[in-house]
């Protein structure tokens, strides 16, 4: 029996008929299993790709929300909204996203993370796995808020070299910012060995390497988002500024003062006769005693031709005491006033100009000058404050038209303060425009052809409170200036600071310049 079985098996092993069917039968389970597994893996991949897109977009949306003040606290809801909007294949079985802030690359809560999962049992793997398949994804987006910059020095030329030039040994240590709108690779140039501490230096173009080597200022070259903060403003035109006027100095007056002593002496004598003209003096036992009085006045105003010395004034009166015809008795009263003048002094007031708002061809200061509150238009000439004459104007604005220029040079006691919003609304300017124009001290009309003669060479007595805006002209600044109630800002086509510049502040204590000149674009990057 055993031998017979062995013989049968040898015959079967040598028989090749039906091998293909056998192999197919044996490999069919593996083929079906592999196909089912491949289909399920493809599903997992599609789920993960769909879910990854949703969390990526959610992380980006949350990060962008964090860069904006209005939405920074709503970043989670913005991320959730974007997550739901981008779900596709897994929308029916995806989890709610987990959203959080996280530190990234040394930052502090400077990224948004989003995690989510999708859970579902698949037809093939579900027969073998005890639990449904879970696909998990994660995304992280870093963000950097776009910085906002102010500046107290702004050049407005858009393409020239050296639109801001600082030369010699100029001292410019007011940490209030320097900005140039020029796209030139040399928009800001340093010549010489100045001392600069500007805080930050901004430009649409290139900035002299001297600043990065010799200062610790923030340097922002080729910066997008720089702009002229006053580009949309127009100068006001109230009725008061349309009145044609001329600058004149009124001749000063001379005042003379002196000490004056008036000594008055009254004496009485007696006479007999038919009338006092023919009477002869006689004794009278009822004679009155002499009377003496004295009055002293110090530093009184006297006529300009008064001189020191003594003058006498005498007055006489006759009174009949009895009528006895040829023997009538007469009383003679004689009053003598001795006026003594001493310590004579003369004071001549200087010429003086008291200006009212209006349109002037020139205001060239030639005497102490006071400006009433309001708008002053300089049409084609110049505003020149030179010499030793004090100039005071509180709540004023100068508008330069038709090439008019500004020249403020050393030696003067100058105190000029710009108008407030309330001053402008009182002159018919709308509240919105008044708020924008408040603080504008000098405003060059954009229709002016400009000039090259603007300069400020101040000293410690030069007080300029407000903005000097010259969109069509350059300005040269040297010397020094001070502020008392408002910040000083210079925004001009080009600005040059020479070697005698000495500026350590552009704002009074407790105030900062709030005119925004640049809004840096926020940045968001998907990092995971």
Defining traits:
eight-stranded parallel beta sheet, 13-stranded parallel beta sheet, 528 residues, alpha/beta, rod-shaped, 35 strands
Describe this structure in words.
17% of the residues lie in helices and 39% in strands. The chain is α/β, with parallel strands linked by helices. It folds into 4 domains: 23-144, no CATH class; 147-231 and 489-522, no CATH class; 233-251 and 351-470, no CATH class; 254-348, no CATH class. The strands form 6 sheets. Strands 5, 8, 11, 12, 18, 19, 21, 22, 24, 26, 27, 29 and 31 form a 13-stranded parallel sheet that branches. It has an 8-stranded parallel sheet with strand order 9-6-32-30-28-25-23-20, with no helix packed on it. Helix 2 (19-66) runs antiparallel to helix 3 (75-86).
Quick overview:
With 528 residues, the protein is an alpha/beta fold. It has four domains: 23-144, no CATH class; 147-231 and 489-522, no CATH class; 233-251 and 351-470, no CATH class; 254-348, no CATH class. Helix content is 17%, strand content 39%.
